[in-house]
Design goal:
The structure is a homodimer. Chain A has 7 helices and 10 strands. By secondary structure, chain A is α+β, with helices and mostly antiparallel strands. In chain A, helix 4 links the parallel strand 5 and strand 6.
Chain lengths: 262, 262
């Protein structure tokens, strides 16, 4: 049945891809949930059905957890709907809530899958520093009022670059999967936005294990606060031992920034 | 009675000033309202009473309208409370909701009034450009998807600098007051924040009539969209005739940025 259903979907005329941004604050993550739980996928599918006139089943580059944001989520779906591709973003704006935005739309060939064709992803984690919270940054950054040694954080991130077993940063109890990924780059840099001092941790990897980005941030922050030394960080990583890493960094600092396809 | 009450307040030992930031999205403006309407002043007074142990009556540099934000609102109040001044921001964070923040606290002499001692203010209005909304900027910027001629907007703003009658930009039906103010500077400049293109209009003035900042923005945007010429803008300003100005720019783009005292 499932294979038949897939074939039916693929028999539709068009394979539409969308670049989607969202403020994840009010949603229970990306992946479709049983109503009344509000997931971003439910809302996208419901509203896109109104535009395209047939039932929509999205495939996304990956899930994002509850509270995680996106500027560069990519999804695709098969449809017989006839709306001109370039008109999709504005049409979507008329149906979607203001915190879910279709930034771009384009047509792909039938073999493209936002999930399976993805080659790598960039996640950005934002930390707001300073003694008090800046309300303009608060929704999209973890506020850390303590001093952070940015050079040490940068050194810790460099240790992760390359092809490694990232089990140390995997959430306990996640589904078993191959824990080897290749991190192409992992950097930290400061930006200033409307009176707020933000540290952005940017990680480009072939993929991310469950909670991997947020656990990396959590360990790197421990290094920045001098609660963990660089040799300790390296040892945890090599030993694939999650236990000394502090609690997973909060979801609202994380953003799926970009997905790369070949 | 009122004068007696004022004298009683002034007889208290300390005159505390606070630098306050807020995300105005969820509040019905700054000024105290009859419950259950949520105004920022109600919440500040209620929560500060828990910290200082006596009844608090705030004076603020000025009201901000429903939905308007602040990074630099200044308030003061008299108290016999004994908490150390430098501990106030952190104590306040324990009582206040996360969208109202005490950034700084200091002690003033008895004659200081956040309202009456204010010499000038800076308001910043933020416009997000680009075809689609960036969700990270959406809460604190007016999205305008149409092309804007920034040079013409800058020229319009320059016309306003100096001491003038600003009646053209006053809301219809506001309380009668002297409409003369001195604008020290009025500029527009682009910033880029996390993939969003923002235009910031920054106006430094001895004061602002009711809706003046938002009506200036509205007229300047009309110039930027080439719906109003510079000579038309100048004529409206000189004739003190509000009628050709489009609707007041939305509140959520506006932020009280800084208040200056002598």
């Amino acid at each position: 049945m499932r294979a038949e259903h897939k074939a039916e979907m693929k028999a539709r005329k068009r394979n539409i891809a969308l670049l989607v941004a969202y403020d994840g604050t009010n949603y229970n993550g990306f992946q479709r949930q049983r109503p009344p739980i509000q997931a971003i996928q439910n809302i996208l599918e419901e509203r896109l059905e109104k535009i395209f006139g047939d039932s929509i089943e999205l495939s996304a580059s990956g899930r994002t957890d509850a509270g995680v944001h996106a500027l560069g989520q990519v999804v695709n779906f098969f449809t017989n709907g006839r709306i001109e591709t370039k008109k999709i973003p504005r049409a979507a704006a008329g149906y979607l809530p203001s915190d879910i935005i279709v930034r771009d739309a384009w047509e792909e060939d039938k073999n493209f899958s936002a999930l399976h064709s993805a080659k790598s992803k960039i996640y950005i984690y934002r930390i707001q520093t300073g003694a008090t919270v800046n309300p303009f940054a608060a929704r999209f950054a973890w506020h850390i009022p303590y001093p952070l040694d940015v050079q040490k954080m940068s050194d810790a991130l460099k240790i992760l670059v390359g092809t490694h077993d990232f089990s140390a940063f995997k959430a306990a109890g996640g589904a078993p999967m191959n824990p080897v990924r290749t991190i192409y780059s992992a950097e930290i840099f400061p930006v200033r936005e409307f009176d707020a001092d933000i540290l952005q941790i940017k990680i480009h990897s072939t993929g991310f294990l469950y909670h991997m980005a947020r656990n990396i941030v959590s360990a790197v922050v421990a290094v920045g606060r001098e609660r963990m030394t660089l040799p300790e960080f390296q040892k945890i990583f090599k030993d694939r031992d999650r236990s000394p890493i502090p609690a997973t960094a909060p979801a609202h600092g994380l953003c799926l920034y970009k997905v790369f396809y070949s």
